[in-house]
Amino acid sequence: MDAARWRRLTDRFEEIASSPEPEARLQLDALRARDPELAAELAAMLAAHRSGRPLALERELAKEGGEWRSARPDTVGPYRLIELLGEGGMAEVWLAERDEPGFRRLVALKRIRAGIATEELRRRFEIEREALARLSHRSIARLLDGGVDEGGVPYLILERVEGAPITAAADRLRLALDERLRLFLDVCDAVAYAHARLVVHRDLKPSNIFLTEALEVRLLDFGIAKLLDPMAPGATTRTALRLVTPEYASPEQLDGGVITTATDVYALGLLLFELLAGKRPFRDHESSVGALERAVRELAAPRPSDTAARDPTATIAASRATTPQALSRALRGDLDTVVATALQKEPARRYASVGELAEDVRRFLRDEPLRARPESSFYRFRKFARRHRAGVSAATLVAVLVVAFAGYAGWQSALLTRERDRARSERDKAREVSDFLVELFGADPYADDESIRDSTPVGEVLGRSELAVRRELAGRPDLQAALLSQLARLQGHLGQLVAARALAAEALDLRRALPGDQRADVAESLNVLATLQQELRELEPAEAGFREALALREAVHGPSHPDVAESVHNLAVLLADKNDDAGSDETERLTRRAVALRTELFGDDHLDTSQSRNALGVFLYRRARPGDLERAEGLYRQVLETRRRRLGPDHPTIANVENNLANLLDDLAREREAVPLFEDAIRVWSRALGAEHPRVATGYYGLAGALTDLGDLAGAETALRRSIEIDGRALPADHPYLRESQERLATLVARRALADSESPR
Amino acid sequence: MSGEVTLWLERLRAGEGGALDEVVARLYPELRAVARRLLRGERAGRTLATTALVHETYLRLLGSRALAPADRGAFLAAAAVTMRRILVDAARRRLALKRGGESARVELDEIAEVVAAPEGDEELLRVDAALAELDRAAPRARQIVELRFFVGATLAETAAALSLSTKTVQRDWLAARAWLRARIAGDPPPAVSS
Strands of A217-219's sheet, edge to edge? Predict the structure, then answer.
């Protein structure tokens, strides 16, 4: 076959293939007279075209929908994808709308790209989602929802931001220097807020910082990039580098060093440079990656004022409504210094926090002298922490903090929560606290698992932290209280209830003694303390604490607020826990209010809503009027489904509801269904909380009951002894759980002896 | 974002060392998707095969001096053709082994053990031979077939990648597909060299 023949084939084929059958046959017959070989070939093609066996390759074509790249669905969960807004190495962002008739809301949908959603990525994505859920700031694109699609790929739903990258937008609007500085301060505010939640962005660059039509700043893309590395096995520094944009990488990112808030300070320095001088500092070295990396590592950043002066066409100055000479003059001095400090190669020599960077920019705007990095107590403390942390893996505690932060539905981040309209001193305090933690622990919250694995037990790290907090923060009762409260929570999560209660009580006393309006903080401490008291079965003081916290929060926030919902929920759970008939109506009312409030605030599919639904299940289970148990089973199964879908099979709150459901089934004489649920709850709790956690004892206690009912007395005794062993270490000796278990053990041992004596030899 | 890929493709064209690594890292999910569609359907070991095929492709591209893709589509097309070539080679080695008998026993290399195309070795080789024949008469038609079959491009995407009208692509595509079907159905299995 040659080109001419192919042309003839295709010409005639199109003609014949598009003709109806009889006419096609006539055409072929006519052709056969002139060129029998061509006619034969065309006849074979026509037959293959109309009814031939498709090639195996074509089956693949049909299956994958003929798409260019990875197979992409039209819908993800309840969202319909409209348009691809952008994609990075690992994630893609879509304009999407919720697929419900009569209701159209446009959102941004972000998902791990098809085909690379490994278990590890999914787990981190979920942790990230939970952490993001705590970020509620006017300058951070809001997280609206999240979930897992039909193919098991996790996704996030974010507020849709219309605008342009901040540098381009500022140029287009020809914003003057002071307007740019004010926008920059908004960016700093958002980043500092995130730092206060232990979230380090690590990928700040203009394309992730949008300016809206209303001249509002929005941070996008919060920390997803750091999750994602397809080449992870055997990753080297260079593969790690692939994840950051070379043009916006800090020296420590190039060198695979520890990433802290200082990395974001550096990135903000780059942003400020570009906003002011119109170019990136190392723009002249961007011809190759190698040259750029060398410059970032070795060359001091040029002064913005010098870069601004070299503007032969005056376009950069023009987009700042000035001339190159005037721009250079305005930048010289203070702004040069601010940028140079932020762009120090060594993280320790940069501004110690985003707050300090912002403060110097504010001082410039107010014509005040810059701060010369005074030897603050924090500065000294950081040095202390650095001197003393040998042998303690920095990442250990931070990992615990982040997991606790993200994982526990009951975790409420009031410690670092600050309403934006509160006094600035409050915000500064929050920043200081987080900087303290982050600096203290050297902290890459998302450090590799290798560095999280550590020989030092977490409890010991917490003990040392407590010591440091007492010694170093003696002069700052506000910060001391905040951190003690935090440590109390962590000790509580580790099952060290008695120690945790003492810390929480101390934090509460400190906060009550502070001047000014401390209602929100006091409520937070009350909440922590009461939660611990409840676990220790000190139900009266716990109830009083929850009631006071609720009243304070209602007074501060009004009736419809996440903190209020949390307090309503906690009080409801406590009253259900007390289980006295007198409080039954109030318990039901509060429990239903918690479900309703959270559904209204967070939606039907949210983990907090699930938590309250679980509580309603517990209430119905305990009340046990006709129909209650069936309703409770339905609620539990719904909660179990939501949590498994959202959190995977190994999350501790899954064990909570498994245990509840198992107890219910046990009561309904469906022990055979109950046993595997108890066993899975024990497995999950042991893995997530450690084999010695009191929750594990709860699981064994339930399992012992079900096995007893099934007649497996030996298995029941083993389980019960294990339960007592664990409880004995974690609970006070006179705890009712322990007494109950011991009584049951005595009965069990007696029954076994009886059974043995009766059984034939 | 996608601008980075463009940047790295530029550097790849300029012959910068390491640029191929960066492109592959950024287009890794796409490459895996292409590999998946070229491999046998759902079955155990598919992940391994996908990974092996992508990695082998990377190694071959690394050794290719002529690689200068104009854009991401062209890069994926080049990678897809390379992948298909790897599958053809693997099929050849397997068939050679099968027919060589005791005396000509050779060790199969790792990649030939892992990867296989959906149509089976003999059809794979027939398609390959037919494509070679098509290429001599109509290189454009062959490119269209490769983009459609190997990369999984739609008609519109194929048209964009080759700077052709959709109508032209549609015409060539239908004729080439019918020709291939007829050729594969009618031809005896090609001879295998051992």
Answer: A163-165, A209-212, A217-219
Q: How far is A220 from chain B (nearest CA, A)?
A: 13
Same domain for A412 and A491: yes
What is the predicted pLDDT for the residue at A464? 63
Question: From the candidates B24, B40, B42, B177, which should be mutated to test the interface with A, based on the most A CB atoms within 10 A?
Answer: B177
Specify the CATH number for the domain of residue A143. 3.30.200.20
For B76, the domain range is 2-186
Q: Express each pLDDT in A263-281 by its tens digit.
A: 889 999 999 999 999 999 9
Residue B142 belongs to some domain of the structure: yes
**Are A143 and A172 members of one domain?**
no
Question: Has residue A588 been placed in a domain?
Answer: no
Asked if A356 contacts A378 with a C-beta cutoff of 8 angstroms, the reply is no
Domain of residue A140: give its range.
Answer: 75-158
Instruction: Evaluate whether residue B119 is within a structural domain.
Output: yes
Total-model pTM: 0.40
Distance between CA A52 and CA B148 in Å, rounded? 19
Judged by CB atoms within 8 Å, which residues 380-439 of A form the interface with B? Answer: none
Based on the fold, state whether residues A390 and A360 are members of the same structural domain: no
Question: What is the SS3 assignment for A645?
Answer: helix
CATH of the domain at A342: 1.10.510.10
Q: Determine the pLDDT at residue B42.
A: 46
Within a domain: B122: yes
- Is A731 inside any structural domain? yes
Identify the segments of chain A with pLDDT beneath 50: 62-71, 89, 224-242, 372-457, 761
Residue A297: how many CB atoms within 10 A of its CB?
11
For residue A350, with 0-12 CB atoms within 10 Å meaning exposed, 13-18 middle and 19 or more buried, which class applies? buried
**Which residues of A carry out catalysis?**
203
Q: Are residues A256 and A289 in the same domain?
A: yes
Q: Please tell me which of the candidates B25, B118, B174 has its beta carbon nearest to residue A49.
A: B174
Q: In angstroms, rounded to a whole number, what is the distance separating the alpha carbons of residues A746 and B10?
A: 79
**Residues A36 and A96 both lie in one domain:** no
* Structural domains of chain B, count: 1
Q: Measured between alpha carbons, how far is A730 from A536 in angstroms, rounded to an integer?
A: 10
Amino acid at site A484: L
Helix/strand/coil (H, E, C) string of A396-460?
A: HHHHHHHHHHHHCCCCCHHHCCCCCCCCHHHHHHHHHHHHHHHHHCCCCCCCCHHHHCCCCCHHH
Q: Are residues A134 and A167 in the same domain?
A: no
Q: What is the pLDDT of residue A741?
A: 87
Task: Tell me: do A398 and A330 sit in the same domain.
Answer: no
**Same domain assignment for residues A91 and A118:** yes
**pLDDT at site A239:** 29
pLDDT at A434: 46
Residue A339 distance to chain B (closest CA, Å): 26
Nearest-CB residue to B174 (from A2, A17, A230) = A17
pLDDT in tens, A687-703: 877 788 888 999 999 99
Q: Is the ipTM of this complex over 0.90?
A: no
Distances (CA, A) of B30 to A75, A87, B5, B72: 20, 12, 12, 10
Report pLDDT for B159. Answer: 83
Q: Is residue B18 part of a domain?
A: yes
B33·A69 Cβ contact <8 A: yes
| pLDDT value at residue B99 | 58
Hey, which residues 139-168 in chain B have their CB within 8 Å of chain A? 141, 148-149, 151-155, 157
With respect to residue A557, please indicate whether it lies within any of the assigned structural domains.
no
Smallest Cβ–Cβ distance between A230 and the set B29, B138, B179 belongs to B29
Distance of alpha carbon A54 from alpha carbon A514, whole angstroms: 80
pLDDT, mean of each 10-residue run, chain B (194 residues): 74 82 83 80 58 83 76 85 87 72 49 69 85 90 88 80 83 89 69 40
**Interface probe with B: pick from A16, A45, A53, A111, most Cβ of B within 10 Å:** A45
Q: Domain boundary at A123, A158, A193, which?
A: A158
